[in-house]
Amino acid sequence: MLARPVHMKKISLYMVDTDAQQAALTLARMQVLHPFNDRLQDMDMQEYPANAYSEQYNSLSNRFTKLTAGSQQNFTDHNDLNSIVTLQQIELLDEELKDLWAIVSALEERQRQQVEKLNATQQLIKSLQKFISLDLDLSRLKHPGRFLKIIVGSIPSGHLAQLKRALSLADFMIESFYSAEGIDHVVVVGSSLQQHDVQDLLKSADFREINVPEEFSGNPAQLQVDLTNQTREIEQAIETVIAKREQLLSEIAPILQNVHDVLLQARPYASLAMVLKGKGGLVFLQGWVPARAQDAITLRLQQDLRFPVHIQFSSPHMKEYESVPSLLEHNWLLRPFQSLVSNFGIPCYAEFDPTVLFSISYILMFGMMFGDVGHGAVIALASMFLWKRYRSIAIVASLAGISSIVFGFIYGSLFGFEEVVEPLWMSPMHDPEKILLVALGWGAIFLLISNLLAILNFLSMGLKSEALYSGKGFAGLLFYLAALYAGYQMMANNQTGYSELILLALPMAVIMWHLWRHTSADFFERTLVVLIESLEHLISSVSGTLSFLRVAAFSLNHIALAAAVFSIAAMMDTTGHWITVVLGNLFIIVLEGAIVAIQCLRLEYYEGFSRFFSGTGKAFEPLKLGDHR
Amino acid sequence: MSRYSCAYLSTRLSLLASRLISFEQLSSLIDLELDQILSKVYEWTGHRYQLDQRNARRIENQLAKTALDDFQILIRPFSGRERRFFYFAIRWFELVNVKVLIRGKFTSTPKAIIQQQLVDLGAFADLPLEKLLETEDPYEMLRLLESTAYAGIVRQARNVFDEQGNDLFLLDATIDKSFFIDLKKHLQALDAQDAETAGKVMGALLDRFNLLWLLRYRFSYGLSPAKSYFLLTSTGARLHSADLMRMAKIDSIEQLVEALPQKLQQQLQGLTVISDIERVIEYSTLAAAAKGLSVNGSLVSRAFSYILLREAEMRFLQALIKGKQLGFDQALIRQAVIGVR
């Protein structure tokens, strides 16, 4: 139940540099090495021989990604790839892709220009009607005047006011005759002598001049036809560009497949750029491997490498724990819960993996808060439909549904009807006090387990002082037990005495003393920190336990919601009654079900994990061929 | 914002403000050696910066990082319009990256050099910098930029490069102009009181940019009055549209300074070099920001003022450290950081 991450060993590999690529490839195929760079080890080896390779790999990979973005081509992942890719091979392919990308990029730019042109033409068609109503002899716009310069065009609306004032400085005027979608269609009029300055200014204002065709003044309908034809031509041009791009990509498909294969094989060595150190023909590689793979690694490397290799395995020292990755292995049933745990954080190497405990307590709490045979059955059945596409959600939902059914029988609840099924133990509706006590008891057990786990985690990380004297440690555990005892005395006998106070004060004094020792500040600040943190510990112990009252509250809430549905249904005729009952139950399943699922998660994360689980570990990420895209 | 958040932010602002380097402190740094400067800065601000002989840019990034970390702390309690305003204001830093990228790509600068000039914005980063750096020609980069929050700038950049003969200064101008116009829109969307108080600080900032750009357009780049005026951004506190239009027609720096509103004119009297004017007007803006930071102002205005002051402090320290690293003359550094007055 209290699993730990898989036992790891540090591997140190010394080999001839010409074997490094093969070693990377072999280890990647085995998917057993989590590389890391211990900068303090082998300080003499300060060269990074895979750096140049990695840069070239990245360049090729980027070009490949750009070329294949949005492409329909499916690449085959060959499993038998096992050849060494040289730097020269990558360089040659990169050069080839560089030329190909230049062609594709030019086509994309042409496509963008055409799209922009299309938008402008469509704008023009929209504004055509406004042109007609313009009180101006537009045929004159075609002929440059001796004294008067008239320009028609469009500008972003945001520029109009300032442009108007700026043009007035050059004795020009501007008038907008149509405004839509952030663009103003304008006429600019002024002296021909200043037109050069003004043209320059207009360009800065993102002004787009409209060339008014000859036939415009005479026949606007013809212009509309022309513009529509123009639109069609542009659309065709866009289609041609797209087709050209597609054609080119299909012609170079074999090249791209080859690059895909090369990248696949080159990736392991390239990804070692920052960890593979070397000097004078010798290279050094370090990483973490699962201990159980030790023999297989030795055997495979000795088989695959041309020259002798020195392999050293060592168990991690406590001071190295921070750098050891956590490999969590769970079966298909627990994997979805592992994802929920990972949402909070990855367990450190020395920490317990809380996945099993989490899954059991989560499912139990869901059932306790949402106990109903009918609702549970609906959730369990509905999860079957999700099985194919959303396996993880389906697993969690079906287990939650089953738990709900079990607690439904315990509570005697079926689709909100409390009198149909005989309760196996108790009905929350008829005995709310009992369910509240059960919830408190559950909370106390949950927190005690969390506290014990925290102690064990501290001990396995070598933090003895924390394990014994801190609020999360043994002193905290004693304090909590004393608080439970005092609470029990209060409830049972309605009084507390000196013995309870002493039991509470002693562990609290230890916690405060521990805090005092570990706070570095002046006397006043130290006192303040110790007092506040002790108070915070006291409050969180009480509030953490009370927080579990929501387990009872939601089971009561479930009944209350059902009662509300039945009250509304009772006001209806027979058909309306059953429609209300069905819809009401659906409402309860969806809305309350979701809320309960979130509340359970909240209790797990904030009342459980935050007490014993740091979640600051790093996941085991093995070197692998994988997908480079 | 809740009362608690207000109290927290107000305390936080006072604390951060107390760590700002004053003008006198900054002046005193100029005569010191680099390691002494860093130790003084640590003493005053609590930020420890490490020198890296191999990478001079590293310290600039450290300075930017600590400033951005402070901004993040300040912005966190805000929500809605206020938060949007601040996030937009901090885009100023990313605009620096956008300019570096566009300029670098259009001048075919090697990737490694462009990379060195980029500022690491941490959580504030919005640009896919790696992808942008990997682009192989300027137009590919502009297409990629079009899919980011800076799409509006791309249109301007294309226009500048396609039609205006690759004038890099025009690019800076158009980017700055559109930034300040949008920042003012965000400011106007704030509550009336916040908009008014923060508007005073922003007004001083806009005056500074408008005056400097006007001087540069007219007397460094020789643009026409109409174009110079058009390229200016929204009007600020003292320099209104009519003033700027009138000043755009003036043909010499001396006359232009004479034509300024009285208070500005007094500050700049006798100055004829644009860089000298720049320093004086910048310190005038910072004085307005220091006033905005006072405890009586609205929290938005105080936080905005702090951002301006902290940004300036970062820039001054960067200039000072760079000057020292390059072994520049102290007088030159003094002029660059403090100015002539």
Terminal Cα span of chain B: 42 Å
Name of the CATH first level of the domain at 138-216 in chain A: Alpha Beta
Which strand-content bin applies to the residues of chain B?
under 5%
Average residue-wise pLDDT of chain B: 86
Largest sheet of chain A: 5 strands, antiparallel
| Helix content class of chain A | 55-70%
**CATH-derived architecture of the domain at 138-216 in chain A:** 2-Layer Sandwich
Overview in brief:
With 629 residues, chain A is of the alpha+beta class. Chain A has helices spanning 20-30, 51-68, 87-132, 160-169, 195-204, 220-251, 253-270, 294-304, 335-344, 355-369, 373-386, 391-411, 432-460, 464-469, 474-493, 498-517, 523-547, 549-570, 574-612; strands at residues 8-16, 34-35, 148-156, 172-180, 183-191, 208-209, 277-279, 282-290, 310-314.
Could you outline the blueprint of secondary structure elements for this entry?
The complex is a heterodimer of chains A (629) and B (341).
Chain A: E1 8-16, H1 20-30, E2 34-35, H2 51-68, H3 87-132, E3 148-156, H4 160-169, E4 172-180, E5 183-191, H5 195-204, E6 208-209, H6 220-251, H7 253-270, E7 277-279, E8 282-290, H8 294-304, E9 310-314, H9 335-344, H10 355-369, H11 373-386, H12 391-411, H13 432-460, H14 464-469, H15 474-493, H16 498-517, H17 523-547, H18 549-570, H19 574-612
Antiparallel strand pairs in A: 1-8, 1-9, 2-8, 3-5, 3-6, 4-5, 7-8
Helix pairs in contact in A: 1-7, 1-8, 2-3, 2-7, 3-6, 10-12, 10-18, 10-19, 11-12, 13-15, 13-17, 13-18, 13-19, 15-16, 16-17, 18-19
Chain B: H1 3-18, H2 23-29, H3 34-45, H4 57-75, H5 80-106, H6 111-117, H7 129-134, H8 138-145, H9 151-163, H10 168-188, H11 192-220, H12 225-230, H13 241-248, H14 253-258, H15 262-268, H16 274-292, H17 299-325, H18 330-337
Helix pairs in contact in B: 1-17, 4-17, 5-6, 5-10, 8-9, 9-10, 10-11, 11-16, 11-17, 16-17, 17-18
